[in-house]
Every structure is written in structure tokens, then in C-alpha cells.
Amino acid sequence: MPTDASYAGFDRMWADLQPVGRVSSGGYRRFAWTREDHTLREWFAGECTARGLDLVEDRMGNQWAWWGDPDATPGVVAGSHLDSVPDGGAYDGPLGVVSALAAVDALRDSGFQPSRPIGVVNFGDEEGARFGVACAGSRVITGELDADRALRLTDADGVTMGEALKRAGRPASIGRDEDAVRRIGSFVELHVEQGRAMADADRYDQDHAAVAIGTDIWPHGRWRLDFAGIANHAGTTRLEDRHDAMLACATAVAEARGLAEKHGCVATIGKLQVEPNGVNAIPSHVTAWLDARGADEAAVLAMVEELSERAAADVSRESWTPTTAFDTSLAGRLHNILGDVPMLGTGAGHDAGILSNAGVSTAMLFVRNPTGVSHSPEEFAEQADCHVGVRALTAVLQDLAG
Ligand code: GLV
Ligand code: MN
Ligand code: MN
Ligand code: MN
Known about the structure:
Radius of gyration: 22 Å
Number of strands: 13
Enzyme class: hydrolase
Helix content: 25-40%
Bound molecules: glyoxylic acid, manganese (II) ion
Distance between the termini: 13 Å
Number of helices: 13
EC number: 3.5.1.87
Strand content: 15-25%
Oligomer: single chain
Protein name: N-carbamoyl-L-amino-acid hydrolase
Number of domains: 2
Structural class: alpha/beta
Keywords: Hydrolase, Metal-binding, Zinc
Cofactor: Zn(2+)
């Protein structure tokens, strides 16, 4: 079990990461294959090699650090991601990576000898903030995202992922990596909670309120909507003569809200690209990205279908993740280890979901978020709760690898 030294190690790693990619909002911009991402990858590699773990990269550049040989016996893996959404919080991703390293320290300090290998992973490009497809790291290695398609994805400056990899000095020969997936006997992703279910759950005693076990992830997807207009002068073009792509887009944003209510789902249009993007020019083209999710797969797809019919746009799907049900027997085992902690589903996507849908036995642990705010600089978890998370993850790894 963790000692004061393990918690101090957690605090030290946490402090190390705070300056990387921090922006004036107080949030983070840590996008795939940028300088900030490189700094984070180097940090992860340094932490792992300092511990004498074997560091390997898979065919998508996800970083794996092993204690033991996963080619002899598939291992127990913990970890998450270090990238962020635009102006994201400090916890989404890094909490899982830092907690996994601290749990490994705690196990080693206690003299624990695993009978199965233990791995720590840093998945790349989980948020899809730069190239649009979330969990690109896990999607490519599991074959869920075709490598050729991934290489052709572009960022807001028109840089393809292939070019970004080249600029980052990475091999462009990315692809499915069955060996990397086969090495994962089970995967446990610890993550900050991204809603307020735990803060609102009052039936649990203090010892059992800070960590929850994940049960499932809502089906979710991203769609691209292209609205065409005609550029013209903002002062001289009569209202009846305009072909304004932004007006069509704004109408669709309002429609999405109404359809989400009708179908009992959630829909978000949070990213736009406008051409020519001038204050005094009527927009000739707007690209909007729709994020749609809900408990019921058919309802989400029906909502998007109806929006596609109503919106004056070309609509194309960029990614889709069906309902993810985590391994119930693994969740039950975690429940036995951790006691009567909350069991929660979530509307947030994770690499854990991609691995689970690819057939890996997978579980998640959530650490309480007192306000529930996430994907925002306000995202927060108490230090004491983070330490409870480290303790829970240590107990889980000890049991699964014992
Ligand atoms: C990723 O965090 C997502 O759920 O969008
Ligand atoms: Mn996220
Ligand atoms: Mn995350
Ligand atoms: Mn996520």
C-alpha cells in the first residue's frame, strides 16, 4: 500500500507537469505531435526509465513502460493520456498517468513481486483536439481507425497527421499493432470524474466516496457539417440577396439543441471554421463539428439523421464509438477490492472504451470532481481524493498482478 513517500512522489510528478502547455486562461493546450506533446512524452520516458521500466512504443507511438515481460504473459496495464482539449483542465488524462506511476512506486516500495507484468501507458492523441478523431492512438493500434485515413486527417492549418508525424521526427509507418494489444491482459484507466454524480452521491461514507468504478460509456460520435454560401459585402448586400453560410449554420445549432431534447440525447457544436472569416464579409463557407452522445445508441443516430435532413449542409461522420460495456467480472473484482464504492456510467470517451470494444478486459476508476466541470480550466479534484485514487489503483494492480 502507498506510503507517504508514494504520495510525495505523486505530488512531485503532478507539480512537474503543471507548467507544460499552460495558457493564459489557466487551462492547457497540449495537442498531439506538437512541442508541448513532445515535452510530455520526454517527461514520461524519463520517469519510466528512471524506474528501470522497459519503455517501448507501438506502431502509433503510444508509450508503454513495462515491469516484467509482457511477451511472456499478458500484463496488467494502467495509464491514460497526457494531451488536452483546447484550454482543458490539468486532470483529464494526466491524473491517470501520474497515478499509475505512483502505484508502481508503491508496489515496488512494499516489496511486491508481481506474478504478471505490470504496464503503464501514455496513449497519444486521446482528445483528437488537433486532427478531429478522439482516441486516435488506441483506435489505430486496434484497427478501429485505418492508418491511411489517420495519416490524411488534417489540422486547422491544413497540416496532415502524416506531415505532423514527419515534423515530429516520427515514423510515418503507423498502423494496427496486434502485438501491442495482445500484451494487455487487462487495462485499468483511472480518470478524473467528468460530471457530478460522485459529489452528489451521499450514501457513501467518506472512505468510499472519493473513487468510483466505471460501468459503461455512452455511444458517441463526431460529424462534420459543411455549409456553403457566397461571399459578399457586409454593407452593400441586401438581406434578400444574401447566401450566408453562417445563418444556415446558426439555424442548425438551434435545431441540434431541439432535436437533442426530443431524442433524449446531448448534442454540441463547439468548433467552427469560417471562410473568409472577415468581420465585413458574408461567410462563403462554414464547417461545423457536431459531437452527439446519449444513453441510447438508436436515439443518438436518429437525432443525427434528423439533423442531417433538416440542416442545409453536407454531413459526414468522422468517428463513431458504439456503447461500451466494461467487463462486468473485472468491475465486480474491483468492487470486492475497493468495497462499497459508487458504480458509474459516463458520457465521456476514453481509450479504455476503444480497448474494451476491441475485446480487451477493461475497467475504469473515477476520482471525485467536486464541481463536475471538465474540459475547462476549472476542472479540479482535491489532492486528498487523488491520493485515495492512487491507493485504490495500487490495491487493484496488486490484486490483478498478484
Ligand atoms: C474526450 O474526453 C471526450 O469524451 O470527448
Ligand atoms: Mn477529455
Ligand atoms: Mn481523458
Ligand atoms: Mn476522453
